[in-house]
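hey m, so remember when u said the tokens were messed up on ur end? i reran from scratch. heres the input so u can diff it against urs
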Amino acid sequence: MNLENTQVQMRKGILEYCILHIISRGEVYASDMLEELTSAKIMVVEGTLYPLLTRLRKAGLVEYKWVESSSGPPRKYYTLTEEGGSFLKNLNATWKDLVKSTRLITSKKTTG
């Protein structure tokens, strides 16, 4: 089994949750999301982020608006919808349960 592949899959599993958290703080530009995710060691590329943002928008969890930029073309800034806020609240509860369960399992000492 390949360790790197397993690590990548674990990170992908929480990518949507992390993106919703980033957006929940207020208007955010996609490249700022990429920067934060990368600095947190959740490696993601534009080819992964943009389709995910599109799925989140189509699901009604995020919306965007175009903002003129003095340094180039207009930029798309994302915000969480009310439905997205409720969705994230439920994900937060799930995350807390998963962390608790994982700690219970991984903290047990081996016997024998």
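this time it looks ok to me. The chain has one domain: 3-106. if urs says something different then somethings off w ur setup not the seq
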